[in-house]
Every structure is written in C-alpha cells, then in structure tokens.
Amino acid sequence: MAASRIPGFNAKTSLPIRVFNSIINPHHQLCVRYLHKSRKPAAVPSPTPFVPDVETFLRLIGRNMSRYSSKITGWKQLFTADSAEFRELGIEMTRDRRYIMRWREKFRQQDYGPGGDLENVVDGVAELRAVEVPIESAKDVQSGKAANTDEKPLDVASMGTATLSPGMRYAIVNLPPGETELKDPSKPLKKFAHYKLHHGNMIKGPYAQIIPNTWSTAVKVQVTDGMWEHKRGRKIDGGQRRQKEIRAKRALAERRKAAA
C-alpha cells in the first residue's frame, strides 16, 4: 500500500506525521505519557479489627463477592492487583471487578461501612455502650433560663437528671466484651460513624443488636454478609428507556383479551 494511503503517514517522506513534524519544526515535541509509569503505587492499608482478612472484606461488601475468597490469596494482592490481574485470577465479570476495586479504594481512604471503625472486636463481634463521661466544654452544657425574676442562666447539666449524674453526659464507647465501665474517662473519645444516641442514652444504628436487659443502652455489632453492600438498581417494566413501550404493549394485550 502506498504511503499516501496509510493514515498517519506523510505522503512525500513516508514518515509518521508526528516524526515528520518534529523534524521540520524544532519547537514541536512529541507528547508521551510517562505518568502512569512514574506514579507511585497506592499504599496497602492495614487490616482493621473488624476487617482482619480478605474473606471478611468480601463478605461485608456483599453481592456474593465471598465466592471469590479462594481466588484472592492475600491482603496485599487484594489492594495491589489491577483489573487484568483480577481477571486472570478467575473474576470474569467486569461488574464484579469494578465493585471490588471501588470498595477497596473506599477502604484505603478509611471510608468504612457500619462497624469498620470499631477497635475492640472479638471473633467478629463488637459491643457499643452508652456510658457517662464528664462534660468536656461549655458547648456540651445545655443551659436554660431560670424561673426567678433575675432570669439567671440555669445550668441544667450540672444539676443532673433522673438518669444522668450531675456534670456528666452520655457518650458511645466501644468497650471490650464483658466490660461495662470506662476505665479512663479523661482520654479523648472516638466518634463512631453510623451510630448515634437517641432519646438520651439509647444507641441507634445499622445492624445494632440490642443486648438483653440493657434497654438499648448497649448493643453488639457482628460481621454479617452484605453489611456494606451497595444495592443494585432494579429494572421495572424494562427500565427507564423501555418502560413506556412495555406498558403500552401490556395495556394493548389486556384490552384485546377483554374484548375477546
């Protein structure tokens, strides 16, 4: 085939156009991508007490990803393999590979699902309790107006309530199983995502199982299949693009059936 008919070649010199332009124009430079080779690979995060291994990670993200636990042999492989390597391991469906890679990136950014930030975990079970801790700052104090004529601010928190000691407030803590009291209240408390206090000292959150005889002041969170799953959408009547067509055909069939 003549050079003039080959796309990307100069007809007179039979050279690729990019090379020809770089010769006749000294200011023309070839644009070569080096970023994907020079960029450092992303760091491999450490396992957490709630997610200690690959099998638990795949169980948590749901969509039956646990069936691939035998194909991914180690934690480092999970966070370093690319899509092509996952395919060689036997994860054939592109949708599944993308889902695993999306969740591993969220895990790398510490964007966990329910229970992922818990620290005291034994055999996949963690306990959360609402305990009394000292009020740390003035913003934690709920102040009101006194009923006397001077209208001095009334420190409600310092007086205490029927269920709360004076100068204390409720906070959610992750204690080792079996413990009910916070050993060192002076240490800064960690806030746990997805779990909050409701009606004073009642703990609410996803997959929180109430411990008997605690009246929702203590719950346990256990590793469960699909805890972090992102649910897939459902196509109703053929989906958004075919919905009108499917419903029109169905209505036509019903009218014909009624007329027969």
Report the order of strands and helices. HHHHHHEEEEHEEEEEH
Query: Total number of β-strand segments?
Result: 9
Mean pLDDT: 83
Number of alpha- plus pi-helical segments: 8
Report, as a whole number of angstroms, the end-to-end distance.
Answer: 67 Å
The major sheet is characterized as: 5 strands, antiparallel
Q: Write down the overall geometry.
A: extended
Radius of gyration: 31 Å
Helix content: 25-40%
Instruction: Supply the helix-strand structural class.
Output: alpha+beta
The percentage of residues in β strands lies in 15-25%
Pick out the low-confidence regions.
137-149
Protein name: Small ribosomal subunit protein mS41
Organism: Arthroderma otae (strain ATCC MYA-4605 / CBS 113480)
Pfam families: SAM_Ribosomal_mS41 (PF09597)
Main location: mitochondrion
What descriptive keywords fit this protein?
single chain; 260 residues; alpha+beta; 8 helices; 9 strands; extended
How is this structure best described in words?
The structure is a single chain. With 260 residues, this protein is of the alpha+beta class. Among the domains are: 54-109; 114-135 and 160-229, no CATH class; 230-259. It contains eight helices and nine strands. Strands 1, 2, 5, 8 and 9 form a five-stranded antiparallel beta sheet that branches. The longest helix has 21 residues, at 239-259. The protein starts with 16 loop residues before the first helix and ends with a helix. Residues 137-149 have low confidence and may be disordered.
Helices and strands in order:
Layout: H1 17-24, H2 35-38, H3 54-61, H4 75-80, H5 83-89, H6 94-108, E1 121-122, E2 125-134, E3 143-145, E4 153-155, H7 156-159, E5 168-175, E6 196-198, E7 202-204, E8 208-210, E9 218-222, H8 239-259
Antiparallel strand pairs: 1-2, 2-5, 2-9, 3-4, 6-7, 8-9
InterPro entries: Ribosomal_mS41, SAM_Ribosomal_mS41
Organism: Arthroderma otae (strain ATCC MYA-4605 / CBS 113480) (Microsporum canis)
Subcellular location: Mitochondrion
